[in-house]
C-alpha cells in the first residue's frame, strides 16, 4: 500500500496494453493531443469516478504512428473508489469496455510499491517490418510495414546489426534530448539485433518471401534509435551504403549524409522484460 491512511490508501497497479499507433500523437501525455497516456488517464478517472486523473508511468515511449503489442505502465489507484473495491479482472474488463478497442488492456494486476514500469524493466524489444518490393516502384506500404526497393542483402544487414550489440555511444542514431549537451554520450546496451525473412503466406514472390523483420532488444533505447538504425541498415542492404557504415558511425558519432528515419508505420514495441516475470536479461 502507498499510504497508511485507509481513507487515502492507494495500491500500485501494473497494466500491460496494446495499441495501434495510428490513432495517437504518441504515447506520452501531451495537452490538447490524443495520446495513449492521455486516453488512459481520462478513462481511469471516468471509470473509477476519481476526483483527479492519475499519473501514469510507462516502460517506453513510442512516437506518433508507432504500435505496441506489449507496453507496460504503472499507476497508483485508490484502494476503495466511489465505484467499488478494485479487482483485477473487473478493472481490466471495465477499462476495455470504455476504451472500445483504441487501447487493449492485456493485464491488470496489483504490484508492490517498489515496482516501476520504467526503472524496473531490464530490457525492451522492438520489431520493424520491411516489405521488399520488386520491381521498384510497386508500393505496398501500409500502416504496419515500410515498402522498399529490393533486392536486400540480409547478410550485410545482419553484419551491420551485429555491430550494434554491446554498449555503444548511439549519438549518430538518436535525437539528442533537449536537456543534454552536444558532446554528451548517448550510451545504450543492445542485447540482440537480427534480420530475418518471414514466411510468405500469400505467395507474393516466386523467388523468396518479401517481408523481412528486424528484432532488436536493448536495456533501453534513445529517441529515434530504431528507426535511424533501420533506414541505415536497409540502405546497406540495397547497396547504397558501405557494409561497415553502422560500425563507422558508432565510432565517429556522425550522422552526416545518413538516410532519413524509417517511417513510424513499420515499428512496434513487442515486449518489455522484468526480473519479476522470470524474463532473463540475455548475456552478450
What's the short version?
By secondary structure, the protein is an alpha+beta fold. Helix content is 20%, strand content 29%.
Which key features would you list for this structure?
284 residues; alpha+beta; Alpha-Beta Plaits; 2 domains; ten-stranded mixed sheet; 10 strands
Q: Topology of this structure?
A:
Elements: E1 10-19, H1 36-48, E2 56-58, E3 67-78, H2 88-99, E4 103-110, E5 121-133, E6 146-149, H3 154-162, E7 166-169, E8 187-197, E9 211-218, H4 225-238, H5 245-252, E10 267-274
Parallel strand pairs: 3-10, 5-6
Antiparallel strand pairs: 1-3, 1-4, 2-3, 5-9, 5-10, 7-8, 8-9
Helix pairs in contact: 1-2, 3-4
Structural account:
The chain is an alpha+beta fold and 284 residues long. It folds into two domains: 101 residues, Pseudouridine synthase I, catalytic domain, N-terminal subdomain (Alpha-Beta Plaits); 155 residues, 2-Layer Sandwich (Alpha-Beta Plaits), CATH 3.30.70. Helix content is 20%, strand content 29%. It is built from five helices and ten strands; from the N terminus they run βαββαβββαβββααβ. Strands 1, 2, 3, 4, 5, 6, 7, 8, 9 and 10 form a ten-stranded mixed sheet that branches. Strand 2 and strand 3 form a beta hairpin. Helix 1 packs across helix 2 and helix 3 runs antiparallel to helix 4. The longest helix is centred in the C-terminal third of the chain and has 14 residues.
Amino acid at each position: 500500500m502507498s499510504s497508511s491512511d485507509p481513507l487515502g490508501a492507494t495500491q500500485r497497479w501494473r497494466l500491460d496494453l496494446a495499441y495501434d499507433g495510428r490513432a495517437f500523437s504518441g504515447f506520452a501525455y501531451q495537452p490538447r493531443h490524443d495520446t495513449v497516456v492521455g486516453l488512459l488517464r481520462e478513462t481511469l478517472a471516468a471509470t473509477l469516478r476519481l476526483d483527479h486523473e492519475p499519473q501514469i508511468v510507462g516502460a517506453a515511449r513510442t512516437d506518433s504512428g508507432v504500435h505496441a503489442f506489449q507496453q507496460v505502465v504503472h499507476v497508483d489507484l485508490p484502494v476503495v473508489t466511489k465505484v467499488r473495491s478494485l479487482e483485477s479482472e473487473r478493472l481490466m474488463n471495465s477499462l476495455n469496455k470504455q476504451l472500445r478497442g483504441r487501447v487493449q488492456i492485456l493485464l491488470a494486476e496489483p504490484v508492490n510499491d517498489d515496482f516501476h514500469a520504467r526503472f524496473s524493466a531490464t530490457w525492451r524489444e522492438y520489431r520493424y517490418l520491411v516489405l521488399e518490393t520488386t520491381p521498384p516502384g510497386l508500393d505496398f506500404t501500409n500502416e504496419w510495414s515500410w515498402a522498399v526497393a529490393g533486392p536486400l542483402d540480409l547478410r550485410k544487414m545482419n553484419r551491420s546489426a551485429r555491430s550494434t550489440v554491446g554498449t555503444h555511444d548511439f549519438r549518430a542514431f538518436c535525437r539528442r534530448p533537449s536537456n543534454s549537451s552536444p558532446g554528451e554520450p548517448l550510451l545504450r546496451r543492445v542485447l540482440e539485433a537480427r534480420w530475418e525473412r518471414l514466411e510468405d503466406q500469400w505467395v507474393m514472390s516466386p523467388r523468396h518471401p518479401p517481408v523481412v523483420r528486424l528484432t532488436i532488444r536493448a536495456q533501453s533505447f534513445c529517441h529515434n534509435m530504431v528507426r535511424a538504425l533501420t533506414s541505415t541498415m536497409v540502405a546497406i542492404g540495397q547497396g547504397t551504403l558501405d557494409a561497415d557504415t553502422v560500425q563507422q558511425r558508432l565510432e565517429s558519432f556522425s550522422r552526416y549524409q545518413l538516410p532519413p528515419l524509417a517511417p513510424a508505420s513499420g515499428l512496434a514495441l513487442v515486449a518489455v522484460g522484468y526480473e519479476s516475470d522470470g524474463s532473463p536479461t540475455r548475456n552478450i
